Amino acid sequence: MLRSLRSLRLLSPPLSPPLSPSLSLSPPRRHFSSSPQLPLRHRLAVTAAVTFTVAAGWLYLRHQKEQQQQQRHLRHLRSLSLGQGDFQLQDTSGRTRSKADFLGSWVLLYFGFTHCPDVCPEQLERLSRALELLEAQPGLPPVQPVFVTVDPQRDDVAALRRYLRDFHPRFLGLTGSPGQVREVAARFRVYVSAGPPDSDGDYVVDHSVLTFLLDPDGMFRDCYGSARTAEELARSVRGHMESYRPLSPPVTTA
């Protein structure tokens, strides 16, 4: 029995030495940077400044692209040579008018006739509304609306005066001899064709439904079909006004 106890004592492994009091079983401490962070309002201000800079740059690039597109469009339109050359027509007061009378003014010019059943009244109403929208915007120069008849045989000075009373008060009607009217229409490449008269002698004139914009230099700037709304037309005219640069500087006198 005593021998067995000695054997067990010899076979048992030595006990592990006690842990040193200097060793700790707690997890290691994490060391954080002691550098100060920006206050929240400063971080928000930096973010807003970066966002504003990016947005401003994008808007500038978009504006530059739109300007380039408009200039290309304007060069193309001017290459068509629409509306070039002078003309001689009579207005609703019987006064002879030429293209020189409109230099220095923006002009919206429409070809039509007083016996037109529906298209011409609709277009003149749309033009009148566009003019009202432009007049409501401060700082814009006035626009002179002009109605050129394509039916001079029936549309004399008195007929034009009566007809245009129903539309914008600044509308100016122009008429002349058939040859004079054909010449002006040809300069703007406006198609005109009178149909056969009926039993009452009445007839319809088929013509291009276009409104032409002329700048203060008398140059053709744009044209608008019947699909344009009054709001779109006014917005386009304003854009041309803002991008307009005179061909020659104005002459100033002391």
UniProtKB/TrEMBL annotation:
It is found in: Mitochondrion inner membrane. Its main location: mitochondrion. Disulfide bonds join C116-C120. It is a single-pass membrane protein. SUPFAM superfamilies: Thioredoxin-like. Gene3D superfamilies: Glutaredoxin. This is Thioredoxin domain-containing protein. It comes from Zosterops borbonicus.
